[in-house]
Amino acid sequence: MLLILNLIRDDVGNTKFQGGYMSEQIEYETMEFDVVIVGAGPSGLSAAIKLKQLNNELNVVVLEKGSEVGAHIISGALFEVRALEELFPNWKELNCPVSLKVSSEQTMWFDDETHAKPVAQSLIPKPMHNKGNYIISLGNLCKWLAEQAENLGVEIFPGFSAIETVKDKNNQVIGIKTGKMGIDKQGNKKDSFVESMLLLAPVTLICEGARGQIAKQLISDYKLDKGRDPQHFGLGIKEQWKIKPENHKLGHVEHGAGWPLSENDCTGGSFVYHIEDNQIVLGLITDLNYANPHISPYDEFQRFKQHPHIKQLLDGAQRLVYGARTIAKGGPQSLPKMHFPGGLLLGCSAGTLNAAKIKGTHTAMKSGIEAAIVIHDGFKLDKPVKHLAFFTHQFSKSWAYKELIIQRNFAPSIHKWGAWLGGAYSFIDINLFKGKLPWTFHDKVPDHLTLQPADRCDQIQYAKYDGVISFDKPSSVFLSNTNHEEDQPCHLVLTDVSVFSKINLPLYHEPAQRYCPAGVYEVVGEDQKLQINAQNCVHCKACDIKDPTQNITWTAPEGGGGPNYPGF
Ligand SMILES: Cc1cc2nc3c(=O)[nH]c(=O)nc-3n(C[C@H](O)[C@H](O)[C@H](O)COP(=O)(O)OP(=O)(O)OC[C@H]3O[C@@H](n4cnc5c(N)ncnc54)[C@H](O)[C@@H]3O)c2cc1C
Predict the structure, then answer these.
(1) Separation of CA 180 and ligand 1 centre (Å)
(2) Is the CB of 476 under 6 A from ligand 1?
(3) Of 249, 326, 346, 404, whose CB count within 10 A is highest?
């Protein structure tokens, strides 16, 4: 659809924007900035901070769909400080919430439901070593980064979702449109109605994290993924527990692979990090290229907790928080072109995560820093839009891109040969040849095309939840503090409602009811109807990625809705 653009300046110089789709004409309030940033995660905030450090005169705004900065942030999180050090060389003096150093580490191979053994650390691919890294709450780090940004004069608008870009007649992005507020389920205006606003700027940075809705649209509009491998994803499910002091080892980190995922030819890995106050965070990342539609990543995680090696840790423990989010892990082969007319895709919106390290925060921050340098130069040269094209070269020279290249074969080799053989290959490729072997593996099959018909796959009978270590989805979602205004249009949009009864149910027994970790999709009643409980959505984006027909589009709900993770 063509957006009609008409800028009008009033007597006092304020800009009003009249626009609309086809015949509908709407007058929008506008605000103008030098740089508009979508997403207050590590990449967006690092870009904002660096921009203001380089030129305090620039007007920079950051939009965040969470009710506050950090509300939607979920991460392990083991943190490499390299980018933070570049941003704030004196970060240790600034009360930065990065203080718990990794004290010891172990990697486990889970053979089956009863056996697990440690793997010698010397056999683990080097990027997975964590000496010198910190265990942090990424939510708290983002809050701290937001404070630093505001001190520098960045405007941060939490509770505002960007729903699409605004383009000019030359098909160049000139800003974003925020979502409307106060629309009921049927699409009628409520008393609380607030129209969308336009935030306009010569430069727009898209920093939405993995599978951003605007990034997805831009990648398609500008064919930014032409000639690249499809992006690949994992679904990370994480919990925070308070455990008995005698089971706790402050600063200890443990990664694992094998069971339970290996039982169904699925790959991914687990993590357990011991943080302050006798708490641990533990999680399981399930690669979303699995074939068996009966797999439920949520239930795989519940099984994982029943392994004796994990169960003994949780003896007498209390679960505090639950959350889920996808990660983009395809590596540099899957990285789309990060530059588009009028802006850049940064961090996990593009896919800068280092899968071998299972870390994406430091590389996301670095992409923001490099973007700021290019944008600053562009403004100095008085050609901010044109100069953006230089970003690709700038980022490719950075240490972040170089480390992505070294580990480029990690994810595809695991996809090809499984965790054990793929891990062994990665040890040779990365530890012995430092990523210099003259070939690059590819995985050309997008995650939504890997599912096999349900009748051809083994049925999986997951055990009943015990309510002690394993729990049902509603009680888990409760611990994510998820909250949405109920009377609003469903933000999970089906392109064609008949796909459910024609394809998804008969062929795949509707996999959404199993891959969604929040119980959003249910098949109910004798006549087997699809029910979408949108208010449960924790914004993980798994449905947008894994639906076999790509019939589900995740769109941002009314701003402020979603999980409210407390320092996750
Ligand atoms: C379970 C799990 C464990 C992980 N463990 C680690 C780890 O140990 N170490 C590590 O380094 N990395 C880890 N990662 C990866 C790391 O979290 C990401 O690489 C990093 O957060 C990416 O930063 P980002 O700025 O690109 O995106 P994000 O951190 O995802 O931030 C994006 C922000 O944008 C907001 N947003 C999105 N769309 C919109 C919109 N349309 N309008 C307004 N706001 C919007 C979101 O609410 C969010 O606040 C883990 C990830 C997961 C899911």
Answers:
(1) 24
(2) no
(3) 346
